[in-house]
Amino acid sequence: MTQVLHFNVENGNSKTTVVEDATASNIFWSDYFTKSYVDQTDHFPFKNSFDLMGRPLEAKKLSSSVHSHKSLARKVRRSKAR
Amino acid sequence: MFANACSIAREFTFPIIISHRTSNGKCSAGIGTFVVINEDGWFITAFHIMEQLNKLGSANGEFKALLQKRLAIENDTSLKKHVKIQQLNSQKIPPDSITDYSVWLGWQGLAIEENFFAIPNCDIAVGKLKNFDKSKVKTYPKFKNPNDPMEQGTSLCKLGFPFHSIEPTFDEQKGFILPPGSLPIPIFPIDGIYTRTVDIENNGIKPYPLMFIETSTPGLRGQSGGPTFDVNGTIWAIQSQTHHLKLGFGDNQKNSKEVEHLKNQYLNVGWGTHSITITSFLKEINVSFQTH
């Protein structure tokens, strides 16, 4: 049994145009000098998501208002109990 | 270590950009890599890249068929208005329908010939370029002779086009336009060592082994179809996929935040189609290549 080898492919129903001058350089299609257009945010999308130990910062800390609410409620209960 | 090898491999490693537009007008593009094998314009890449192109072709065919159906309903004078609306509503065009797509292969005018060869199990595809100018490629690759020793621990490097995004626009006349800053695409190497060989179940599909080479570093998104080569620039594999091996630390410890963090640690390793599979396949389809 031989696996089918042949496949068909189309190059698209449209074309691609490049804005840069294709004749400008023989390394037009690739270069290892990165340019400023390389979006730095792509490289580390989780910036500010981890602490220095590499643990995720999930912002689990309760906000101060929630804290004060709880402590206030506790205080009220305790004062009533007395 | 790989400075010389990279300068060799850059000569035959090219980007493949596949752009598409959906019916809601959104355009996007994916980048992969291919290697030109010889001066006749034969090239090799990952099958999943060619498959992506085929999927876009099928999706575009479905879109065109849907348009035809809607046109037939609109032009049917025998239908009452409310029936027509009802039928048109049942044949709505999904917003993610593929209206246009195109492939760009590093030079203007370069295209892929209609027929190509592939072993999907090994994620490998070989095709021929149309309008190929052999003077554009100064050095053609040498593939590792699998009869020579291929030692575990050998330093290998992968090359391709990761960490770059292209957001094309679309013009009815010009097609997809790659905006300023799209080119040249920065080429990116990543090194590692040959860790293991992965055997693919053959089941008599081929009279030769179907194998991947595993390397200790990941193949990056955009490096698919690119070469994995040694310090001489000789190709040992064509990058296919990345696997995430669980390290297993903290598995027997009590749950806590730190342990949970430990449990989710992985080693990312690259898999590339082995030179024994590539060279045997090229011989099978009578594509000339060099070995080292």
Task: Give a summary of the structure in a few sentences.
The complex is a heterodimer of chains A (about 80) and B (about 290). Chain A is an alpha+beta fold and about 80 residues long.
Broad structural category of chain B: alpha+beta
> How far apart are the termini of chain B?
19 Å
Q: Helix count of chain A?
A: 2
CATH architecture of chain B: Beta Barrel
| Strand composition percent of chain A | 5-15%
Organism (chain B): Pinibacter aurantiacus
Protein name (chain B): Trypsin-like peptidase domain-containing protein
Region (Disordered) (chain A): 63-82
Biased composition (Basic residues) (chain A): 67-82
Overview of this protein structure:
The complex is a heterodimer of chains A (82) and B (292). Chain A contains two helices and three strands; from the N terminus they run E-E-E-H-H. Chain A has 82 residues and is of the alpha+beta class. Chain A has a domain at 24-58. The longest helix of chain A is centred in the last third of the chain and has 18 residues, at 64-81. Residues 36-43 of chain A have low confidence and may be disordered. By secondary structure, chain B is α+β, with helices and mostly antiparallel strands. Chain B has helices at residues 3-9, 47-75, 81-90, 257-263, 275-284, and strands at 13-22, 27-36, 42-46, 98-104, 111-112, 115-119, 124-130, 142-143, 155-160, 169-171, 175-178, 185-186, 188-199, 211-215, 227-229, 235-246, 266-274, 290-291. Strand 2 of chain A pairs parallel with strand 11 (175-178) of chain B.
Essential attributes:
heterodimer; A: 82 residues; alpha+beta; 2 helices; 3 strands; 27% helix; B: 292 residues; Thrombin, subunit H; seven-stranded antiparallel β-sheet; six-stranded antiparallel barrel; 5 helices
